[in-house]
Prior knowledge:
heterodimer, A: mainly beta, four-stranded antiparallel β-sheet, globular, B: mainly beta, 9 strands
Amino acid sequence: QVQLQExxxxxxxxxxxxxxxxxxxxxxxxxxxxxGWIRQPPEKGLEWIAVINHSGTTYYNPSLKSRxxxxxxxxxxxxxxxxxxxxxxxxxxxxxxxxxxxxxxxDYWGQGTLVTxxx
Amino acid sequence: xxxxxxxxxxxxxxxxxxxxxxSGSSSNIGSDYVSWYQQLPGTVPKLLIFEDxxxxxxxxxxxxxxxxxxxxxxGITGLQTGDEADYYCGTWxxxxxxxxFGGGTKLTVL
Lengths: 119, 110
């Protein structure tokens, strides 16, 4: 069974950089698929952030592209997200998920991690 | 503002049928697959429909998806109180090279 688990700080100060990692179990990232990040501000809808595959091909949300970096470490079977210059508007539950490339659907999701932005 | 437009809310009585629309454009729905997600209160989004109309294993056939042109529709028959959730459509936009999600539709089963 494919499982994804987000890890990272629950609290980030304004202007700082958020770093999150998604550890995958039950499936080798090197075997294929894309892997992505989605966030959901409190009481709001889903916002797509970025995706990456095992070879490092990336796609980013145009509105976040200048602040976001997604990376993959196949040796550790995890992928990561960095979001710079955090503001209150970036407070959200951050989900990682497995993505079927080409068909672009998200079939396995992590439990999500709540990130608060406050000094 | 979401590029994929969904009604904010829909409601129906138990046992009835409801449809949720998702409207896009030729660069997204019109040229790529649509997926649908169900998010029960306080839970993680769950894949409901992929590739416009296919159901993952374990999803009951009360849930169906269809697409025509630049619009997609999620249908739910035999509504149950347990279907109360937020529903999101998603698709790739070939002009933006980005994934899009609709704004979400809150389903209330009266």
